[in-house]
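Recall the central idea of this unit: under ordinary conditions, the amino acid sequence of a chain determines the structure it adopts. In this exercise we apply that idea directly, starting from the sequence alone.
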Amino acid sequence: MDLHALTPIEEISRRIAAIRSLMMERSVDALLLTGNANIFYTLGRVVSGWVYIPREGEPLYFVRRPENVRGDNVCHIHKPELIPGELARRGYPLPAGIGLELGGATYLAIERLKAVFPDAAIADASAIMRSARAVKTDFELHLLRRSGIKHAMVYSRIPHLYRTGMSDIELQIEIERVSRLEGCLGQFRIAGDSMELFMANVLAGNNADNPTPYDFAMGGAGLDPSIPVGADGSVIKPGDAVMVDANGNFTGYMTDMTRVFSLGQLAGEAVRAHQCSIDICRELEKVGVPGAKASDLYDTAMRIVKEAGLERHFMGYTQKAGFIGHGVGIEINELPVIAPRSRDVLKEHNVIALEPKFVVPGVGAVGIENTYVVTAGGLERITCAPEQIINLE
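Accordingly, the structure predicted from this sequence is:
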């Protein structure tokens, strides 16, 4: 089995160089990565094991499984305690400071790895990797744009999937089926504590106002208390807004998109709120340039919402989300975060999902979500499905 799968070695080298630049800034001698997302980013495939990135010298890949991965820099080991011996055998000095994934690995895993390097100062590799992965390469942008095209194709099929008397979960299942047939991988990695995610989130009518414990823009009661989010089995009825928030992972890189459907015409307040969401996106597309503060984008959105008199409905009604956008890529919820207290500053080739949404009691959730690439000319939209409310009848 080839070491880097379908990711060119030149691409891996560019990513390692970006990581090393951040390591130099933070005086970290080496990183030891074990999370799937970071292993995929630095190796081009997922393995069970550890990726060791020194500030100088070739990265080393300590693989536990699968056993058929081969390459000059691959060491097959069954436990991390063997790593120092392999480093010595290959002429690598033990690091004085090492970065571990403090933001993602378990306490027990971190303690075990600290014991492997007892004399090394510990730094946070999670912060370094989140910063590195936030700025996409041309190769990554190509994969994201491909996902965006496939994603839009799935949304174009949604009006033809609805049948009279359908429930929200029945429509969601049909959307997920079409998505898989279009090539969706079905797996959505999401950063954050205790975060769980379906392939699609379909919210019909008042279910959109049911609060959820998860840090998502919209809620929903779900089908069972074990996963209390999303569709709850409600039958879609005339006057309901049907918000479809489906993720598009067709290439290992995810786009995020939301569109709204309806049975018949929606109440005027909901239509006005939906247009306000579109207006926010148009304005942020212009000002979302490299160097723009994420908090300023949030403030601009709030100004438009207040001018429209819709703040009571913005980002939830009973329970409100504290952000309007987030980075996407290998995971949902990457950097930057578009929130009022965010310290993030947009950089060229950040990829962000903007989701200014509203909940109108008696109608449901309205508003759009698009995935964008940050460019010198503003935000380039790569999820290009129609944005207006589409009648399912």
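The chain has a mean pLDDT of 95.
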